[in-house]
Design brief:
single chain, globular, 4-stranded antiparallel β-sheet, mainly beta
């Protein structure tokens, strides 16, 4: 199985969209290594951004750390139809991976996998839903475009 990923270089503040061209690979245990010198620990300098294997409305592949623009009329998750809140015409959410609490569940059980975190409504989380992503556009990522997450008042 081929796992797609990009790498954010914290030192040079740039996205590496073709890690193999820079001799960067994932080891069997998920660590980022330089194939020329696999003993060097790279996680202090780089952040691995995994592909979700899902596409947005413009057919762009999505990765952890991507910021998506959700139109208020998507009617799938988070819109007025679901929670009764009044939203701006659109809002931004971030794709993440790991443990999270589903905002639509009452129990305290945490889920694990790809999820979306909403920055406009108190950082609420819910599973990344393919049908939602197909209605959204990737507008940037948290490393290159942090200003997109500033909550407008």
């Amino acid at each position: 199985m081929n796992i797609g990923f990009n790498v954010w270089d914290k030192k040079e503040k740039r996205m590496i969209e073709s890690p193999a061209e820079e001799d960067l690979f994932l080891s069997g245990n998920g660590n980022l290594i330089n194939i020329k010198d696999p003993m060097i620990y790279l996680m202090d300098r780089y952040i691995v951004l995994f592909s979700t294997c899902l596409l947005d409305k413009s057919k762009k592949e999505s990765y952890t750390g991507d910021i998506i623009r959700v139109p208020s009329d998507c009617g799938i998750v988070g819109g007025c139809k679901d929670c009764g809140s009044i939203h701006s015409p659109e809002w931004h959410e971030v794709i993440k991976f790991g443990k999270f609490k589903n905002m639509y569940e009452d129990d305290n059980e945490k889920l694990f996998g790809f999820y979306v975190e909403n920055y406009d409504r108190g950082k609420k989380t819910y599973p990344l839903i393919p049908s939602l992503l197909k209605e959204c556009f990737i507008v940037g990522n948290i490393y290159e475009n942090p200003e997109l997450l500033e909550v407008k008042k």
